[in-house]
Design goal:
By secondary structure, the protein is of the alpha+beta class. It contains eight helices and 13 strands.
């Protein structure tokens, strides 16, 4: 984070749809591998939760500060300052603006190790390491009668199941993710109608991004993962696994995926108690 700068030509505005596209372009420049449909899928969750910093009318920084509707949960992501404008205080100002927007919320974010100390100054607490794995999953013909499209499952069941793995219900996010954000979203469901797993995959700039991947067992997670990948070819993927999920790490290693790096999931307020052993991939670094 930068020192403060009082340049009167700098202003913060709520992002337009085109601005959110620019934010995705910034993410691509940072090598974050955004999903190709992230801009519209993210904005549908909270249209007022995306901000652009303008210097003399031109965008120089951005941040997402999404409030999950009808909850006290928020999430910060897409926090980027153009390289030639770093160290001038613009990033700090837009971050403070995001925090004010989320006043009263339990706020989550993913932070690279070098920035975690700075976030602690704003009341964030470290919850868990999140490890990214990347690689190619070999094509595998696999038929599992328990896997169905999420679009075919009643939303109330999906919302309830997702909420077990996140600090709050995220109805708008799920609807956006299933219908817009992902290329495929699947559910593992028992014969009695009990959901035992949920997974999504979306095409990114470089391969596919898996998330979420929630499962009651490693076997269900693996079945969902193979079913999510396009069947016509091997599939390059990346996904973010909470470090305490040792089964998730073992699954990634058994599939010959490579460790790429890690971030830290942090929260303000009380750290949510989540079943990390059942979270084989978080939905996204931008919205949790």
């Amino acid at each position: 984070m930068e020192t403060n700068n009082t340049n009167s030509d700098f202003q913060i505005v709520t992002a337009s749809a085109e601005d959110v596209n620019w934010m995705s372009t910034m993410s691509e420049r940072e090598k974050w591998n955004p999903g190709l449909k992230d801009a519209i899928a993210f904005q549908l969750v909270d249209p007022n939760g995306f901000f652009i910093g303008l210097l003399n009318g031109k965008p120089v920084c951005c941040i997402a500060a999404v409030k999950y509707p009808n909850t006290t949960c928020g999430y910060i992501g897409r926090y980027i300052v153009e390289e030639n404008h770093r160290g001038k205080g613009y990033g700090l100002r837009i971050f403070k603006h995001a925090m004010e927007h989320l006043t009263g919320c339990c706020i989550g974010l993913d932070a690279v190790p070098s920035q975690q100390k700075n976030y602690k100054k704003f009341g964030f607490q470290y919850a868990t390491a999140v490890k990214r794995y990347i690689g190619v999953i070999q094509r595998k013909a696999q038929i599992c009668k328990n896997i169905r499209r999420a679009k075919d499952i009643s939303m109330d069941k999906l919302i309830e199941y997702d909420a077990r793995h996140f600090p709050c219900q995220r109805t708008h996010f799920l609807a956006s993710w299933i219908h817009v954000g992902t290329d495929q979203c699947l559910v593992y469901i028992e014969d009695d109608g009990t959901i035992k797993g949920l997974g999504g995959i979306r095409l990114g700039v470089d391969g596919y991004r898996v998330g979420p991947l929630f499962a009651e067992t490693p076997e269900i997670a693996e079945n969902l993962l193979y079913a999510l990948c396009p069947s016509e070819s091997d599939t390059k993927v990346d996904f973010d696994i909470p470090e305490p999920n040792s089964d998730g790490i073992l699954l990634a290693e058994r599939l010959n995926l490579q460790y790429f790096g890690e971030s830290g999931r942090m929260y303000t307020g009380v750290i949510p108690k989540l079943p990390l052993s059942n979270i084989f991939a978080f939905a996204s670094a931008e919205l949790g």
